[in-house]
Design brief:
The protein is about 25% helix and about 40% strand. The chain is of the alpha+beta class. The protein has an eight-stranded mixed beta sheet with strand order 2-3-4-1-5-8-7-6, sandwiched between helices. It has a seven-stranded mixed beta sheet with strand order 10-11-12-9-13-15-14, with helices on one face. It starts with 9 loop residues before the first strand and ends in a 5-residue tail after the last strand. The relative contact order is 0.18. It comes from Corynebacterium glyciniphilum AJ 3170. InterPro entries: Glyas_Bleomycin-R_OHBP_Dase, Glyoxalase-like_dom.
């Protein structure tokens, strides 16, 4: 991910809630966005399109909220449940922004007057000699388009390098898939006040504002005026390049995928 580390905040992953995980994976694959299965636990399963060695789109299905609440991800899912249930399913629920220090980020938002919940997830194993896990920060009184924040143990750049090394040992390329293959360019969000929301997000993330587009490294966030007063504000799609979409826009499990016109 060249250049993504130069800014303290960068795109980490997008959460796409689906009804049928296998069908959603097939739809992504057919768009040229290759997926792989990930976790399976009571009440919850997911998969992902691994954009590169750090960024990804998560496809998730929640079959049983009560069962899922007892898993290692139970606290996180409980915090996200209102957002997920308020969004259109299937569809895009939220996105994560990577930060170097999630607890410090939580303190910044608390100082700014926001209500914040911190979820600390730790696994039983170690990676690169460090306890494996991640910390997520949710701003619970923010609007629907607002991201949550995440930092990893070991740090994300270490995890990304381990993935690169593994791919090379398997005979793969040292370059991440997004260097020559499909790449995520933008997240697309509806808003009743796109100029205002874009400005607020750009200030909070300390990113450049280009019209109603927030230049978040890893995936910019583009706000558009809601097509009607009844349209729920929030994420509705994403744009990609080098995906070979035969139609643009295309629809995949309730989300819109478009070909990006942005050039490298």
């Amino acid at each position: 991910m060249p250049g993504h580390h130069e800014h303290p905040y960068s795109f980490d992953h997008l959460i796409h809630i689906v009804d049928d995980l296998e069908a959603a994976m097939t739809s992504y694959d057919n768009l040229g966005l290759p997926t792989h299965a990930a976790l399976s636990m009571p009440g919850f399963r997911n998969a992902a399109w691994g954009i590169d060695d750090a960024r990804y789109i998560e496809l998730a299905v929640i079959d049983d909220w009560d069962a899922a609440s007892g898993s290692i991800y139970g606290e996180t899912l409980s915090v996200m449940r209102p957002t997920i249930e308020a969004s259109t399913t299937p569809g895009l629920a939220s996105f994560a922004v990577h930060v170097p220090d999630a607890p410090a980020t939580a303190a910044l938002f608390r100082d700014a007057g926001y209500q914040v919940t911190v979820c600390d997830i730790r696994f039983d194993d170690q990676v690169d000699g460090q306890d494996a896990g991640f910390t997520e920060v949710f701003v619970t009184d923010a609007p629907a388009w607002f991201p949550f924040f995440i930092s990893y143990s070991p740090p994300r750049e270490v995890i990304a390098q381990l993935r690169t090394d593994h791919r090379v040992t398997q005979g793969g390329d040292s370059e991440p898939p997004s260097e020559r293959g499909p790449d995520l360019v933008s997240l697309l969000a509806y808003s009743h006040t796109p100029s205002h929301d874009a400005r607020v997000l750009s200030e909070l993330l300390r990113c450049e504002l280009r019209g109603t587009t927030v230049a978040l490294p890893g995936a910019q966030v583009h706000f558009e005026h809601s097509p009607s007063p009844d349209t729920t504000p929030g994420l509705y799609g994403f744009s990609v390049r080098r995906a070979g979409l035969t139609e643009s826009p295309a629809f995949v499990a309730g989300a819109m995928a478009t070909s990006a016109i942005t050039q490298e």
